[in-house]
Specification:
The complex is a heterodimer of chains A (318) and B (302). In chain A, 75% of the residues lie in helices and 3% in strands. Chain B is built from ten helices and eleven strands. The chains are: A mainly alpha (318), B alpha/beta (302). Chains A and B meet through α4, α12 and α14 of A and α2, β7, α7 and α8 of B. Chain B: Belongs to the bacterial solute-binding protein 2 family.
Chain lengths: 318, 302
């Protein structure tokens, strides 16, 4: 019981303050050294880039809580954009095309979840296959060419504003809120932590482990799909390579945010902060005109520092 | 298409009649086309090659190497085992694909390089545009347009890719003669539309007095235009890109949002590769250069 208490999301959030401190230090540092870093335009620039990354990080957070991993999130994002664009070309009104594309994304995630939990193929292998399959389906659907999207309503999801704030920031914030409420206040949210903490114990306690783990993958598919809609809308294009490779920054974001790869530990707050830290670093590197050769070096060092800091935190809390 | 059919039938009939004497079937070639990846640019090479193959009655097997040299080498092996008549290779890597090309040589299957080449093995032809020249032409245009003075953003391709290195070298070779053109940023947009958009957004914030953008492919340039439009800065910017002549790019040039596209012609490359291979198998010779095409916006022609 005390162990479970320590994994309680609210306590977890307090432990996660180390990441917040790192983020604040990063922002203060860049405010001093990077020209024009402190401006509304730049704040929005960081948040706009962070929006799809936050959604993909939420995918990883939820599946990692149940000791899984989803390598297919970037591929499903691209796949969703391609489906939405195709249906709009076929004459479907954009809200229907978008909803059906999101449904397809959720189905894709559900399919992965079912294969993992009922057919017992490991999470890593199933989603690695998913990465290949959905990347390929996107190429097949788009025939390798960018598909233009002319529906203004759809494109507004990625380039519009609401109360002066870019739409995709609202969308990401809304999903963050929903997931925070889900994990923090509902029984199924708590059960995700329990499954990741000790699957056998969770099963014995009456938690329907396979069903809930499958549901985690269904959510991952849906959240990846929403990220895909934003990616397509902000360019008014379904790019045949959209989302490709985005699973790695998403995994990096949650790792930076203190989410455990082995399940049971992690918070929405951490995933969001991790994504913000990565977007802020990328933004800072461009503002400072650091050679792109260094980008991945910096990212790698930040991931290592974050994980080492997490170990220190864990040791001190023991 | 329909109207042509009877004529083709007659030709085919004549062909088989002519061949009756030699008792061999009409030559039905099968070519393998190995693309390094399936980006819009390579998809255009593919469609150019496919339409030419259809015209010549060649069966074309297309493989996507997914930017992975091991995958592409396996695909070469498979096509050699299938005994294709010719391989059109767009290598994922200049070094890693040498053994695969040598295997094709050993199997006496002629090789044509498209867009990129391997550093070893033997090929009967290599169709590509001159990347260094393309970079130089784009930046020469910008230098003239800025009258040798101003702030330039170099929007680079994937770090370490040969296309990036050669295009940048071409641009730099011109800019060194213009000390008053300040390259205020050199950043990578990874050859993608989204990369161009996100990097351009930040560069516009960091440099309120930006005058011109040099983009190393069309996808990034399209992204950069969107960022500049959103920031209300497009009017004050001159953008030159190394394009591929795609519909989206051509539209922006027509609208004057991109001042110059030094357009590569991937469809032509694909078609010429197939045509050259076909001619080589029939006649034993090959020669076709691929010119670059200057696509100016209204009023930009020097």
């Amino acid at each position: 019981m005390p162990n479970e208490l320590r994994h309680h999301p609210i306590l977890q959030a307090i432990v996660d303050q180390g990441v917040l401190i790192a983020f604040v230090l990063l922002v203060v540092f860049l405010a001093f050294v990077a020209p024009h870093f402190v401006s509304t335009a730049n704040a929005f620039s960081i948040l706009i880039d962070a929006a799809p990354l936050v959604l993909l990080a939420l995918c990883e957070l939820v599946v990692m809580l149940v000791a899984g991993i989803d390598l297919a999130v970037g591929a499903i994002a691209g796949f969703t954009g391609a489906i939405a664009a195709t249906m709009m070309l076929q004459g479907f009104p954009w809200p229907i095309a978008t909803l059906l594309a999101l449904l397809a994304a959720m189905l894709a995630g559900t399919l992965q979840g079912v294969i993992i939990n009922y057919l017992r193929v490991t999470d890593f292998i199933t989603t690695l296959a998913g990465l290949s399959i959905f990347s390929s389906l996107t190429l097949i659907i788009t025939d390798g060419e960018p598909m233009n999207i002319n529906a203004n309503g759809f494109n507004a999801l990625g380039e519009g504003h609401l109360l002066g704030v870019p739409t995709q920031i609202w969308i990401a914030a809304f999903i963050v809120l929903v997931v925070a409420l889900w994990l923090g206040l509902t029984a199924s949210g708590m059960h995700l932590y329990a499954i990741g903490g000790n699957r056998v114990a969770a099963y014995r306690a009456g938690i329907r482990v396979r069903r809930l783990r499958s549901f985690a993958y269904a959510f991952s598919g849906l959240s990846a799909g929403i990220a895909g809609v934003i990616l397509a809308a902000q360019l008014a294009t379904a790019d045949p390579n959209a989302g490709r490779g985005q699973e790695l920054p998403a995994i990096a974001a949650v790792v930076i945010g203190g989410v455990s790869l082995f399940g049971g530990r992690g918070s929405v707050w951490g995933a969001v902060l991790g994504a913000l830290i990565l977007s802020t670093i990328l933004d800072g590197l461009v503002l400072l005109n650091i050679s792109p050769f260094f980008t991945e070096l910096v990212e790698g060092v930040v991931i290592l520092l974050a994980v080492m800091m997490g170990h220190l935190r864990k040791r001190s809390s023991n | 298409m329909k109207a042509k059919k009877p004529a083709t039938l007659i030709l085919a009939a004549l062909g088989s009649l002519a061949l009756l004497g030699s008792t061999t079937a009409a030559p039905q070639y099968t070519f393998g086309l190995l693309l390094s990846a399936m980006t819009p640019y390579f998809a255009t090479i593919k469609s150019g090659a496919e339409s030419e193959a259809k015209k010549l009655g060649v069966q074309l097997l297309v493989e996507n190497g997914n930017n992975d040299s091991a995958t592409q080498s396996n695909q070469v092996d498979t096509l050699i085992a299938r005994k294709v008549n010719l391989l059109l290779i767009n290598p994922t890597d200049a070094k890693a694909l040498i053994p695969a090309v040598e295997k094709a040589n050993a199997a006496h299957i002629p090789v044509v390089f498209i867009d990129r080449k391997a550093d070893g093995g033997h090929a009967i032809a290599y169709f590509a545009s001159d990347n260094t020249q393309a970079g130089a032409q784009a930046c020469q245009f910008l230098a003239n347009h800025l009258h040798g003075k101003g702030n330039l953003f170099m929007l680079l391709g994937i770090s370490g890719a040969s296309a990036t290195n050669e295009r940048s070298a071409g641009c730099d070779s011109v800019l060194q003669h213009y000390p008053n053109i300040h390259v205020v940023a050199r950043q990578s947009g990874h050859f993608s539309r989204r990369g161009g958009l996100t990097v351009m957004r930040d560069v516009l914030i960091a440099h309120p007095n930006l005058d011109a953008v040099y983009a190393e492919n069309g996808q990034m340039a399209i992204g950069a235009v969107r960022a500049a439009e959103a920031a209300g800065r497009l009017k004050n910017l001159t953008i030159a890109m190394i394009g591929s002549g795609s519909a989206g790019e051509t539209q922006l040039v027509k609208e004057g949002k991109i001042a110059l596209s030094v357009a590569q012609q991937p469809a032509v490359m694909g078609a010429l590769g197939v045509e050259a291979g076909y001619n080589y198998l029939n006649t034993g010779t090959v020669f076709v250069p691929v010119p670059l095409h200057m696509d100016y916006a209204p009023g930009q022609r020097p």
